[in-house]
Write a structure and sequence with these properties.
Order of helices and strands: EEHHEEEEEEHHHEEHHEEEEEEHH
Low-confidence stretches: none
CATH architecture of the largest domain: 2-Layer Sandwich
Number of strands: 16
Helix content: 10-25%
Strand order of the largest sheet: 1-2-8-7-6-5-4-3
Structural class: alpha+beta
Radius of gyration: 21 Å
CATH class of the largest domain: Alpha Beta
Length: 322
Amino acid sequence: MPITSVTKDPEALTMTVVADFDAPLRRLWDAYLDPRLLERFWGPPTYPAVFTRHDGCVGGRSEYAMTGPDGDVSRGYWEWVAVDEPTGFEVRDGFANPDGTPNEAMPAMRMVFAFEATPHGSRVSTTTYFGSVEELEQLLGMGMEQGMSEAMAQIDAVLADLASFAAGIGTSTQLLSDTQVRVSRIVRGSVDAVWHAHHDPALMRRWLLGPDGWTMPVCEVGTEVGETYRYEWEQVDGSGRFGFTGSVLESRPPHRSVTTGVMIGTDGPSTTDELTLTAVEGGTLLSLLITYPDAEVRDTVLATGMTDGMETSYRRLESLIG
């Protein structure tokens, strides 16, 4: 059991949980910043979490849902207040409605996570600040302390798994729901370099090509909210051509962008693509959350070999910026 102490202070309206691990500080930090790792321990074993957003930067936001054994769903969010890599971050933690908006009927808390190296590994101290004694008692009565203990007991296994999510593994695709897919890869390069590679037309034409044998004759980039983009690809022998267009919904350089996308020349439904870049050991975690209109469209796109094509492109990207 990694938790070494739990201290409740009704006068200061706080609860502090200290946990020690036999793992390097950077590994522990990345476990909280990488949504693929965090969702393996943020919820108790009977209420596993899925993070559909996890920005990890000041002004950013995280959104997650924990599903119980009977199918009941508890949703939450973080609003990122401060980040001091790799020693600490602060978030406003609250309950969420099904549409992701804050559930005002439930308390929101301030949570401060402090990370430090120890002689035997690393430590995280999580201090939760409540708004009142009543809120503290309400949340403890709902099983908050027990839930955190059960959740954090899973971190050792996550930290011990050095291979599954390390740099060099390649591109992975996770089905998060009937309509959402998360594509992830650690790219060897800085966050700034990876962001630039996604917004510089000359550079994009060199790596965003999918399988060998294609060129990118049209690369019109949108960088500001409301702007449009247009990408077109053509086989080198001229036998095939296709493209996508869409608009920029959100842009927060160098960490997050949200765009729509639809295939040029079709009246097909559009997707929403949420790109998040996070600094981790080995480079930059690139996380692309794609929302499709339904499961049928999702499966049709995945069956085209999308993941393999993206991996080929990301290998080119690494060769240019790594």
